[in-house]
Amino acid sequence: MGFSATSPTVDQGDGASISAVHPDIIMAHILTRLDGQTLASASCTSSQLHAFSTEGKLWRDICSATWPSVADPRVDDLISTFPAGHRSFFSDSFPLLDNFPSRFDLSRPSSPPTTELISAVDIFYKDQLIFSKVQESETESGWFLCSPFRVDLLDPKETVPTPIRHVGEDQASLKQLEENLSLSWIVIDPTRKRAANFSSRRAVKVQRHWLTGEIQLRFATILAGEKRGEFVQCGMVVTCNWSEGGELHVREVSMQVEGMEGNHLNGKESLVILERAIEGGERRKEVKGKGRFEEYLEMKRERRERKERREKTLDMICIATAVTIFLTFWSFVFFR
After folding, report:
1. Where is the F-box domain (predicted)?
2. Which residues of 173-192 are buried (b: 16+ CB within 10 A; e: fewer)?
3. Is the dihedral of CA 218, 220, 225, 230 positive or negative?
């Protein structure tokens, strides 16, 4: 049964309307066929559809289909405590996060810090799931607060085989991965009952290591830093390589937060930024992740050049001062 613009969801002038359709048909054969975006739009068309679309099971099924990792019992139970359950979670997590500083009030007070963050991560290739995992990260210990923030989903010697096969030349394989591999990295804050998807969905950079041959796909969201005018990169890296049989193996899936100086932020600094983004970051259907990443790299380059110019100027001043002192001293010695 199809669901098109000509279905009786609006008055066609002959008295037909959504109310003419039996509720069981709407629930079992129409709403269950919709994805989250379409269901949210349909709920705005009439009070009856709005009432039907608040059914918790609909949104639970949509969330599980969109992100298989959230079907994990720990995550599913947590999402059930959100203000509107899975509907709230979908609203937080499906649109891309846009926490660009110009669109976020940095003076906004923050809620009490959370005791843990939960990562629900899914990797797809041509819409086929190839990796899914849930990871809990405590946020209270001194080790977490003082050490560089990093979430690793795989142990150093662990690899995950995938059904992806090597195709053609190396450059063609890189292009194949860039175009078809997508990442969802949802960070859940159990304290605030909020979540956000920090992935750019598509890779912003794909490169092959010249020595090891490993392929690194970088996903990134540019966030507001702790200070006004500061930017940070919430970067997620998927590292993989080709096996002897031509299959792609995933060997690293990690997240770090990097400052504009190229430094990795510690847990305390990263927690403040992530919490603020989760709570106040704007969600958008479309964010030019690669474009934002390239803008960020350009800002880093300009910042580095300004720093180098300042250091060069300071060096020249120091040299001039030293020469002046040297000449003054010997002038005093010879001409006194």
Report:
1. 23-63
2. bbebbbeebbbbbbbbbbeb
3. positive
Cross-strand bridge partners of residue 263: none
Q: CB–CB of 306/312 below 8 Å?
A: no
Q: How far apart are CA 193 and CA 242, in angstroms?
A: 40
**Which residues lie closer than 8 Å to 98 by C-beta, 6 or more apart?**
281, 282, 283, 284, 287
Q: What is the pLDDT of residues 144-184, one digit of tens each?
A: 999 999 999 999 899 999 999 887 777 888 888 999 999 99
Q: CA-CA distance, 153 to 201, in Å (whole number)?
A: 18
CA distance 218 to 221: 10
Instruction: At 336, list the tokens.
Output: 């006194």
Return left, alpha or beta for 85; rule: phi > 0 is left, psi -120 to 50 is alpha, else beta: left
Contact yes or no for 223/235 (Cβ under 8 A): no
Contacts of 201 (CB under 8 A, 6+ apart): 96, 182, 183, 184, 219, 289
* Amino acid residing at 223: L
Q: Report d(CA 78, CA 192) in Å as an integer.
A: 11
CA–CA distance, 71 with 60 (Å, rounded to integer): 8
Rounded CA-CA distance 280/98 in Å is 10
- pLDDT tens digits, residue range 296-332? 878 778 777 777 788 888 888 888 888 888 888 777 7
Locate the domains of the chain by residue range. 22-90, 95-299
Count the Cβ atoms, other than its own, within 10 Å of residue 155: 9
From the CB of residue 132, how many other CB atoms can be counted at a distance below 10 Å?
A: 19
Candidates 168, 202, 175, 199; CA nearest to 186 is 199
18-53 burial: b if 16+ Cβ within 10 Å, else e: beebeeeebeeebbeebebeebbebbeeeebbeebb
Chain centroid to CA 172? 26
Q: Indicate the length of the chain as a whole number.
A: 336
Q: Which of 153, 151, 168 is nearest to 242 (CA)?
A: 168
